[in-house]
Amino acid sequence: MKKIVLLSAFSFALSAYSQITINRSHVVETGYGVNYASDTNSYPLPDLGANKTWDFTGLKKVDPYVMSFGHNSWYPGYQSFPSATHAFLDDPSDSFYQFAEISESKVKLLGSSEVYLGEVETNNFSMTLLNFPTQFGNSWTDASTEITPPDYIGYDVDGAGPLPALDSVRFSVTQNMNSKVEGWGTCKTPLGDFNSLAVKTTITFSFKPQMKLGKNWITIPKGILDSLPDFVPPNDTSYQLMWWTNDKTVGFPLIIAEYSPEDLELSNPEWIHAKAGFNAVGNTQAKSLNMYPNPVHDVLTVAMGNHIGTIQVMDAQGRLVLEQEGTGNAQVSVKTLTPGNYFVSVVADGIPARRMKIIKY
């Protein structure tokens, strides 16, 4: 009888501990920075399953960076992601922004924008990272499609034959994602020990070629494709493992790594080396920055105090129209700008510190 009681108690404890649950309260908020580091080494692919201990205490802190989370409307290209609640960037000196929906039901990456030569380019590949509440055994799928810019070819495969000439081509690229929570247990890192869920994700890209016929885009006929060997890229599949924790001071995946099913290795893991903390809009640094007058006609003053940084002015479409370095009471001439609404962003001391809407009259 005593053994049965002990077994029942053990079973109850195992069941209770196995129900590691991750929900919205465990994920980063606006204004926080998540402190990641890269590790260029490879590690053996660990076993997944129930009640595991994953020992990553040997991770190396190489190339640390801060993933800074802000509101989606603070960053260029946000109009392309109406359901986004957050946006983040890995490097304040970069102009690559990722947009996400972080809600009570999910964490979903919606796509990205990049400012290139003053123009905003967007990518709409989406990826659901978590569905809430997240527990061991949960699974979900996601799919999104992006059309590549067209390229002019000017190729006629059969001259006067029946096949149409190949004028311009583009690809319809589909991303299919399958995720499953395949492990729970304790994840040990240099930062500490964490109750964690291991999420395995498979991402496959497939390519469908299209050609322009008159004003319409159609699937390229097989007869044309047969004359163009290796024209269509093969499907590309990648594999990823993420360890999430219900410790809300971490805020995002504790470890992110690609893996190879053939080599049974994790490669280039990214891992959180310090607890999340305020480092963006809303901190003391941001409150010390001010801009006036607003509305403005000729010169905008950006009061930066002792901070040193970059001031960027973007139009309502997210296009960069002015950029300059500044410190103290920086003077920004807007005299040549067309009257209208603009956004002024300040990166101070390497940290995104403020974004403000101004009116030029």
Strand portion, in percent?
Answer: over 45%
Q: Secondary-structure element order, as H and E? A: HEEEEEEEEEEEEEEHEEEHEEEEE
- Gyration radius from CA atoms, angstroms: 25 Å
Using DSSP, what is the number of strands?
A: 22
Q: Give the termini separation.
A: 85 Å
What's the pLDDT, averaged over the residues? 84
Q: Which assembly state applies to the chains in this document?
A: single chain
User: What number of domains?
Assistant: 2
The helix-and-strand class reads mainly beta
Low-confidence segments, given as residue ranges, are 1-17, 280-288
What does the main sheet amount to? Answer: 17 strands, mixed
Share of helix among residues? under 10%
Count of DSSP-assigned helices: 3
Keywords:
single chain; 361 residues; mainly beta; Immunoglobulin-like; 2 domains; 17-stranded mixed beta sheet; five-stranded antiparallel beta sheet; disordered N terminus
Describe this structure in words.
The chain has 361 residues and is mainly beta. The chain folds into 2 domains: 19-278, no CATH class; 284-360, Immunoglobulin-like (Sandwich), CATH 2.60.40.3080. Helices cover 7% and strands 57% of the residues. The strands form 2 sheets. The protein has a 17-stranded mixed beta sheet that branches. Strands 18, 19, 20, 21 and 22 form a 5-stranded antiparallel beta sheet that branches. Strand 19 and strand 20 (320-333) form a beta hairpin. The relative contact order is 0.16.
